[in-house]
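batch_manifest entry 22 of 60
target: MYO5B protein
source organism: Oxyruncus cristatus
requested by: lab member K.T.
priority: normal
notes from requester: please return tokens only, no post-processing; we will run our own comparison against the previous entry in this batch. if the run fails, retry once and flag.
--- input ---
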Amino acid sequence: PVLRLLEAQLQDQRRMHEEEVEGLRNQLYAMQEELHKQQQASLQTLQLSPEVQVELGLQQEITRLTNENLDLKEAVEKLEKNEKKLKKQLKIYMKKVQDFEESQTMLPAERRPPDSNMQVAVQRKEKDFQGMLEYCKEDEPLLIRNLIT
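--- output ---
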């Protein structure tokens, strides 16, 4: 039973190897044909007059530059779209900051810690801890404003 299993595996590997070799041969033939076509085109180009050679070279360069321009236009459009998206997000965040500042001014002064103490506490927490931050619900607008600034 073990010998038969090994023979079957060997046959499978041999078959896979032969398929791979056949695929590589086909690829090689296709590349040889492409090379032959390019060589023929080059020979034909060399037989043409210098003016026609220059014209063909210019046409190829124009085609290449046109394709490059199209790619660049697509990239610009993508960046402009991203810029619009980011501007929208910025407006939303600016509105949220403004709302938080307005709600902060409505809090009673005795419940609000001084801004300088809050900044020091946040800085100390950043140095000592990484992860979660505990805060009172009423201090949320001040905390967010300090994080943003």
